[in-house]
Amino acid sequence: MREFLQYLITGVGSGCVFALVGSGLVVVHRVTRVVNFAQGSFAVIAAMTASTLLASGLPHGLAEASAVAVGAGAGLLVGLVAIGRPGTPPGASLIITLGLAVFAYAVEVLIWGDQPRSFAGVPGAVEFGGVRFQAHYLLIIGATAVVFAGTAALFARTDIGRALSACASNPYAARVVGIDIVRMGLLSFGIGGALGGLAGVLVTPIQLVTFDYDVTLIVGGFAAAVFGGLMRPLHTLVGGLLLGVAQSFVAGYGNAAYQMEVALVLLLAVMMRQAARAPAAEQEPA
């Protein structure tokens, strides 16, 4: 029972990280219909930035917040290249984000090298049900809950959120009422960059981060986002948690080498389910 609780708690923490990365994908896709494959790079850039700032003597909190801001800036830059030119089709933008994700490898290795980075998180341990785990997991879970509640409030209760939703539901109508589609798209990329940066900052104290760790994050985040149809943040959270817990159980009771395969199998299963539902939806009367 203790092992079960241990794997469950660590899995929830990892799942929250996947959900944050997936939520960035959802925000960008809802507004622009672009799948941003550079989303994992924002997490790595923020993680590396935070480690550098902390090593230079900047206090915790300020260093992490600055790193998240750097992630948001990276998201905005990717958005400028991917959708800054009006009329760029979503397929072309997707390829651009994929190319920028690969280019980010060279930038990260040039600045930080190829050695793994980490830094201390919340100190101490917490005991629950006879199981001791790092207190930092509570920060991950709490921050994720706040982010998803804030994202829901943004889209439901603010003028900016309504403008973003309008771009997602009917871009033509949004233009007619004076909403700048490109500006809203860039804002969504900035928000996605901040969410990815937050994921990177939160995961680094419990996971060594290297320049290519974005592959793990984007696969897990994309699986979580696809679970929500790339449109629904709450379903993305559920998908991320399911993936994180499944990977933790596989690593604990089986072989940690198969964690990536778990994400890919989940992704394939959800995509097959979505594909099976699509013809039925098309046959429904208007």
UniProtKB/TrEMBL annotation:
The lineage of its organism: Bacteria, Bacillati, Actinomycetota, Actinomycetes, Micromonosporales. It is found in: Cell membrane. Signal peptide: none annotated. Pfam families: BPD_transp_2. Belongs to the binding-protein-dependent transport system permease family. LivHM subfamily. Keywords: Amino-acid transport, Cell membrane, Membrane, Transmembrane, Transmembrane helix, Transport. This is Branched-chain amino acid ABC transporter permease. The chain crosses the membrane at residues 6-28, 40-59, 65-84, 91-113, 133-156, 185-207, 213-230, 237-258. PROSITE patterns: PROKAR_LIPOPROTEIN. Coiled coil: none annotated. It comes from Plantactinospora mayteni. It is a multi-pass membrane protein.
